[in-house]
Design a protein that fits this description.
By secondary structure, the protein is α+β, with helices and mostly antiparallel strands. The protein contains 19 helices and 14 strands. Strands 4-3-7-10 form a four-stranded antiparallel sheet. Strands 1-6 form a two-stranded antiparallel sheet. The protein has a two-stranded antiparallel ribbon with strand order 2-5.
Length: about 575
């Protein structure tokens, strides 16, 4: 009996010890809590709520509220808070600096954190604290200690992005720390924000958290594809430059670290030397010209990136054209519109990558025939600039090779001048192109249709007619979207047929409007035929898109289009 009694006591002692570890701090305590709210930084006035938690993560009934006190996301509750266990939940909503676009968000987002204040008064709220929130709560309810739940959730999140390094508790990390933890946070933040409006971003992180919650893995294929796209299209050097400029504008000299070592650029699930090579190719600001395009494979990768940006641009343009042709949501087209900003950014990303190919490959001794890549890059650049000039009327033109930021200071050109530059750049653009694979890759025939279209925009119908008479009405060029939009038609058989009718004097505006509504080029055709207002009823200022507000602010040479 004595042995049984002693054993029972020892077992109880062991259980008590385990319980103490798993339950976290039990003693009530007083704390002064301050920190930063960061996505990028939340603007001044964003509300921050702290909810006191019991050791089982249930709410004690006490809560405290404050607001951020600067545009760097700083907050301070300014009083000693009485906490039941030391465990707290932080929640904030507000506008934030978008590191991918280089501007403040157009709408608010909500971020959360759950943290142990034991040993620390500084508590930050950021994307990582938000992503782990639901998973941590689930693991604690399943019997894990708070500490172990946090460690597991953080490891699982990092694994999703192929990051094998450990990270300090996210609530102790700030984007401005310029260390490994800050770089990991910024890498994940930039990947997840890529190609999303604020509303889309909020939806995305909610789906991510829900998917992660129960098993610690991301199973949703659309989420995984979005992460892969974010990895492949991340530009660390440009984001670093934009963020440092932002902090300087707020009177803070901050150094943002190089977070490229934490990005799986090629999306193969492993961060290794191949990712460093991919970064050098797609982000030339991190290397010298001689260090990339070492092989034809490198040229192919960048050309694929040109197509990806072009596809993104055309998809945005089609959506904007549809809004104007249907006259239902046209009032949503404003200088602050996320869709307008996405279209502009995607267009200049395409332009940037195409110029990069031409600048890097022309007049160099290489181990492969670079002409097909140069030729295709010039043609695709002409295609995107023609469309942008048609949509906005007056756009900046960046010459040579510069980063995508070059558009922020470049001289704007009127549409007709842009058309002329496009034609000039294509004078020597003849076969060979990169070998045609289905209709995905640009061909000589696609280039000829583009030239004819530009001549029509310039009112030079005779030159357009001469080209079109040599082209049969068949499918010539389309884009394959990786974002769930499927095939995007560009130069389809009916498109070429309508061009031929138009150039021969037929008013086929009704056919364009009825049969090709919401498809590529219809709005431009109705503008050429001067039938936009008659068929849609929209105000004439919508014939041109507004220049994104942040671009007008960034480039003093730009003026906003009339009516906006």
């Amino acid at each position: 009996m004595n042995k049984i009694f002693i054993a029972a006591i020892m077992a109880a002692f062991t259980l008590a010890s385990c319980s103490s570890e798993s339950d976290g701090p039990e003693e009530p305590r007083s704390k002064q809590i301050l920190g930063h709210i960061e996505k990028g930084p939340f603007v001044q006035g964003s509300e921050v709520t702290l909810t006191d938690l019991n050791k089982d993560l249930s709410q004690s009934g006490k809560s405290y509220t404050t607001n951020t006190t600067s545009d760097l996301g700083s907050f301070d509750f300014g009083q000693t808070l009485s906490l039941s266990s030391g465990l707290v939940e932080l929640k904030t909503s507000g506008y934030f600096y978008n590191e991918c676009t280089g501007r403040l968000s157009n709408s608010q987002i909500t971020l959360k954190a759950i943290a142990d204040t034991d040993g620390a008064d500084n508590m930050n709220v950021n994307l990582l604290t938000h992503l782990e929130y639901a998973r941590v709560k689930y693991l604690v309810k399943s019997g894990k200690s708070f500490k172990k739940a946090k460690e597991q959730a953080e490891t699982e999140i990092l694994n999703t992005f192929a990051i094998t390094d450990k990270i300090t508790s996210p609530e102790k990390v700030s984007l401005t720390d310029n260390d490994k933890n800050a770089n990991i946070l910024l890498a994940i933040s930039s990947i997840m924000l890529y190609d999303k409006t604020e509303a889309e971003f909020s939806e995305f992180i909610a789906k991510f958290s829900n998917d992660l919650e129960k098993d610690g893995t991301i199973d949703n294929n659309s989420l995984k594809e979005a992460i892969r796209k974010g990895q492949e299209n991340c530009h660390p050097s440009e984001i670093k430059e934009r963020m440092e400029e932002f902090y300087q504008s707020k009177g803070s000299n901050v150094t943002i670290g190089d977070f490229s070592p934490f990005i799986d650029f090629n999306g193969d699930g492993v961060i290794d030397d191949r990712d460093e090579e991919m970064n050098d190719i797609v982000n030339p600001g991190t290397s010298t010209e001689d260090s990339y395009f070492k092989s034809e494979e490198d040229a192919g990768k960048v050309l694929s990136a040109v197509y990806a940006s072009l596809c993104e641009y055309i998809n945005c343009q089609n959506k904007l054209d549809e809004m104007r042709l249907n006259n239902e949501n046209v009032q949503q087209i404003t200088p602050g519109s996320d869709l307008v900003s996405k279209a502009w950014s995607a267009g200049y990303s395409c332009d940037n990558r195409a110029r990069m190919i031409v600048n890097a490959l022309e007049n160099r001794n290489l181990s492969f025939d670079a002409k097909p890549y140069i030729t295709t890059a010039k043609a695709l650049r002409a295609l995107v600039l023609y469309n942008m000039a048609t949509e906005w009327g007056r756009i900046p033109i960046v010459s040579g090779y510069d980063s995508v930021l070059g558009a922020m200071s470049a001289n704007p050109y009127d549409a007709k001048d842009v058309y002329g530059l496009c034609l000039e750049s294509m004078l020597d653009v003849q076969i060979p192109y990169v070998k045609n694979q289905g209709n995905i890759y640009f061909s000589q025939k696609a280039s000829d249709v583009l030239k004819a279209e530009i001549y029509m925009a310039l009112g030079r119908k005779d030159e357009a007619r001469k080209i079109l008479n040599t082209i049969s009405s068949e499918d010539v060029f389309e884009l394959s979207s990786e974002t769930g939009n499927g095939i995007i038609e560009i130069y389809s058989a009916d498109y070429i047929k309508y061009l031929k009718e138009e150039v021969n004097g037929k008013d086929n505006s009704a056919e364009w409007f009825v049969n090709r509504k919401s498809r590529y080029g219809t709005f431009a055709a109705l503008r050429r035929l001067n039938k936009v207002q008659a068929l849609t009823g929209i105000d004439s200022h919508f014939n041109l898109l507004p220049i994104p507000a942040h671009e007008v602010l960034s480039n003093p040479k730009l003026t906003q289009n009339t009516g906006y």
